[in-house]
C-alpha cells in the first residue's frame, strides 16, 4: 500500500461520498481506489467507511480520521508549494475567501492594482459569508469580520467593524429624524441577517444592554438589497463605517446620532481581519498579497 496515495483517496471519497467520483478525479480504475482504502482500513484495524450499493458514508471514527488526514495533507501540500516557490517570482493561483459585503466594497476595487503589480498571479476570489477553515480548506488568505480569531492562524487587523445608524433623505422627509433611542419605536428598520442570526440593534444605556424597540421593514442577508432599500427610503439601517470610507453609498445618505450609540452586537470590540497560516507567508504569492492588502486597507 502507498499510504500517502491511500490517504488522498480516502480524503476524496470521504468528501465526495463516491468511489467512482474519486476514481475519475485521479483518473484511475475504481478497483484501485477500493484496494488502497481497504488496505488502509486493514492497517488501522478500523472501518472508515460504510459501503452499500447506493451509499458511501463515513463511520464515526472515519469522520475523526478524515479531519486529521485533511490537516496533514494540507500541511504537506503547503510544504511542497513552499519548496517549489522558494525564491521565485510571485506566481500561481492565489485563493482568497472574503465576506461578501466587505469584499465588494473594499477588496474588489483594488484587485486591478494588485494584478498590475503581479501579473503572474491568478486570483481566485470567493465572496462568501460561510465559515472557512484555512487550516483545512484550500484557501491562502481569508478576510473575515468578528472578534480576534483563532490563535492558530496569523490575524492582521485591517479595519474596524463598527456601525453607524444611517438614513436616506427620502426616509427622513417621510418619517422624520429620530433623536433618541425611544424615538425608534415610531420608525422602521432594515435588519441584516448573518449565517446564524438576525442582527437586532442593541443599546447600552447607563451600563445596561437592551434590544432596541423598532419595527422591521425588511430582514435580509444581502448587503446590496439592504443598501437599496435604505436608499429608497424604506427604513433606517446600521451601516459599517468602512462603507462610508469606500464611497460605496450613493449621495443622499446621512449618519444619525442619537442620545446613546447603537450597536449590532454586545461584543463591541469587532474588527476585520486578514487571516493566513504562518508558514504560507514564505510563499511569494501569499507574501505579496498579504503585504499589499495590509498596506492598502489598514492605511485608509
TrEMBL record:
Keyword vocabulary terms for this entry: DNA-binding, Transcription, Transcription regulation
Pfam (any one): HTH_1
Record field: transmembrane: none
Any single biological process term in GO: DNA-templated transcription
Location of the HTH lysR-type domain: 1-59
CDD domains: PBP2_CrgA_like
A Gene Ontology molecular function term of the record: DNA-binding transcription factor activity
Family named by the database record: Belongs to the LysR transcriptional regulatory family.
Designated name of the protein: Transcriptional regulator
Organism: Hahella chejuensis (strain KCTC 2396)
Amino acid at each position: 500500500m502507498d499510504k500517502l496515495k491511500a490517504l488522498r483517496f480516502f480524503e476524496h471519497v470521504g468528501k465526495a461520498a463516491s468511489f467512482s467520483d474519486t476514481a475519475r478525479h485521479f483518473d484511475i480504475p475504481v478497483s484501485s481506489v477500493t484496494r488502497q482504502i481497504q488496505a488502509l482500513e486493514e492497517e488501522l484495524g478500523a472501518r472508515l467507511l460504510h459501503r452499500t450499493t447506493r451509499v458511501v458514508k463515513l463511520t464515526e471514527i472515519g469522520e475523526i480520521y478524515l479531519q486529521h488526514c485533511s490537516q496533514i495533507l494540507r500541511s504537506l501540500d503547503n510544504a511542497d508549494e513552499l519548496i517549489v516557490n522558494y525564491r521565485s517570482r510571485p506566481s500561481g493561483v492565489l485563493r482568497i475567501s472574503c465576506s461578501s459585503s466587505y469584499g465588494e466594497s473594499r477588496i474588489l476595487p483594488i484587485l486591478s492594482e494588485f494584478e498590475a503589480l503581479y501579473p503572474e498571479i491568478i486570483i481566485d476570489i470567493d465572496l462568501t459569508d460561510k465559515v472557512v477553515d484555512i487550516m483545512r480548506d484550500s484557501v491562502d488568505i481569508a478576510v473575515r469580520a468578528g472578534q480576534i480569531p483563532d490563535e492558530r492562524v496569523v490575524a492582521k487587523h485591517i479595519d474596524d467593524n463598527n456601525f453607524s445608524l444611517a438614513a436616506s433623505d427620502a426616509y427622513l422627509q417621510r418619517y422624520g429624524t429620530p433623536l433618541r433611542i425611544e424615538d425608534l419605536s415610531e420608525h422602521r428598520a432594515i435588519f441584516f441577517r448573518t449565517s446564524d442570526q438576525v442582527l437586532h440593534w442593541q443599546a447600552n444605556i447607563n451600563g445596561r444592554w437592551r434590544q432596541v424597540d423598532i419595527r422591521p421593514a425588511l430582514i435580509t442577508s444581502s448587503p446590496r438589497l439592504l443598501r437599496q432599500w435604505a436608499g429608497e427610503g424604506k427604513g433606517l439601517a446600521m451601516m459599517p463605517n468602512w462603507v462610508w470610507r469606500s464611497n460605496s453609498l450613493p449621495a443622499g445618505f446621512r449618519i444619525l446620532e442619537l442620545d446613546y450609540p447603537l450597536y449590532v452586537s454586545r461584543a463591541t470590540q469587532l474588527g476585520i481581519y486578514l487571516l493566513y497560516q504562518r508558514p504560507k507567508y514564505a510563499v511569494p504569492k501569499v507574501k505579496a498579497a498579504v503585504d499589499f492588502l495590509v498596506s492598502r486597507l489598514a492605511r485608509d
